[in-house]
Amino acid sequence: MTSPRILLIIGGGIAAYKSCELVRLLRKQDMAVTCVLTDGGAQFVTPLSLAALSENKVYTALFDLKDEVEMGHIQLSRQADLVVVCPATADLLARMAGGLANDLATTLLLATDKPVLAVPAMNVRMWLHPATQRNVATLKGDGISIMDPDEGAMACGEFGPGRLPEPEAIAARISHELQQAKGAAAFTSQPDFSEDNHRPLYGKHILITAGPTHEPIDPVRYIANRSSGKQGYAIAAAAADAGAKVTLVSGPVNLPTPPGVTRVDVESAREMAAAVDAALPADAAIMVAAVADWRAAEAADKKIKKDGSGNVPPLALAENPDILATLAKSPKRPPLLIGFAAETNDVIAHAQAKLARKGCDWIIANDVAADPMGGDANRVHLVTASGVDSWDRLPKDAVARQIIAKVADALR
After folding, report:
1. Do residues 178 and 211 share a domain?
2. Domain identity same for 279 and 147
3. In what order do the strands lie in the sheet with 362-367?
4. Is 324 annotated as a binding-site member?
5. Do 142 and 214 have their domain in common?
6. pLDDT tens by residue, the chain, 412 residues
7. Is 360 annotated as catalytic?
8. Is 323 annotated as a binding residue?
9. Which listed residue (20, 35, 86, 156) is catalytic?
10. Same domain flag for 154 and 284
């Protein structure tokens, strides 16, 4: 059996140092890796390091007579099974979107006829800049897969989305992309809802909630559940790709709005409940948000101060509205109502109990002890009245596509 062949293009950013570990992980999985190092990338990692790890020659220059004689850039661009750009800097994404071919990396990307995966990494403001988001949307429209960056502290000292995902998550995504490219049976239920394919949710309205809610205690403190919003946003993006009109009711997150999605920002559970009701009717509602169960019964209008006595001020709690259960009983109930359950133990049993208690059609459950919130992958269980369908651990955008494929089948 031939080993999968990866052409790895390494852009110029501090995150380039992670490319060495990525190469090591891919080689450990018996993948053949050929590295292309940009001038910027060479400021952070050396051709010698990459050659030693990949056990292959590293390519750096477009106008190298010896390379063009031995292996022209056209051949190099087409002999791989997957082209991976990691890290994909803002400049590299812009040049890719513009169709430039002014160095070896961009020439290869313009000449290739193979699938391309870009893994962005940059400063948070650069990632959220409208120009970068336009470029990302253009690249997605061109059929290039984009792996969302992680959120966290950056080398520049700022915090937010823009960090390169960890090499293990990138390696898992690469394995997934290879399986998709080969048309593996395990991924037949995850169609690519591209411009050229049938859009199974065209004309349907899909309502999605995502992220946490923040319940104020005073002007500077709040109660919240942990949630990055990544899975809900991935589902919204997949639904839009499938042709749906998508309303995304989002709690506070640092994520860009997926292209083609109408986003409604809220803070509290009560605001989210009102926004959900205002967005109806819908053909399906997918309640992914991690809504806080309780709020402060009376939020203070000024910051609560410590008085030095050591006594903790009392905090009376009130129960928040149960958005999923309320929607299940509403006369405007969508024909397909889906809830999410993030559990730490007895995942399937708790999900089955929640399905009966909430009155929804499906519960999608995941074990947050195994896959902590904020990560890039999920292993979920689809729980219905008919039984339990447990899926393999997949990147969150792959989970999203699989969910949307199931939704399309159900609505059909």
Report:
1. no
2. no
3. 261-265, 245-250, 205-210, 284-287, 336-343, 362-367, 380-384, 387-390
4. yes
5. no
6. 578 999 999 999 999 999 999 999 999 988 999 999 999 999 999 999 999 999 999 999 876 645 554 456 677 888 899 999 999 999 999 999 999 999 999 999 999 999 999 999 999 999 999 999 999 999 998 989 999 999 888 777 788 899 999 999 999 899 888 877 764 333 334 455 654 445 799 899 999 999 999 999 999 999 999 899 999 999 999 999 899 999 999 999 988 898 889 999 999 999 999 999 999 999 999 999 999 999 999 999 999 988 888 888 889 999 999 999 999 999 999 999 999 998 889 999 999 999 999 999 999 999 887 777 777 888 899 999 999 999 988 888 889 999 999 999 999 8
7. no
8. yes
9. 156
10. no
In sequence order, the 6+-apart residues with CB closer than 8 A to the CB of 277 are 330, 332
293 labeled binding residue: yes
User: What burial letters (b/e) apply to 183-216, b meaning 16+ CB within 10 Å?
Assistant: eeeebeebbebeeeeebbbeebbbbbbbbbbbbb
pTM above 0.90, yes or no: no
The domain tally of the chain equals 2
**Is 63 annotated in some ligand binding site?**
no
Pick from 157, 187, 217: which residue ends a domain?
187
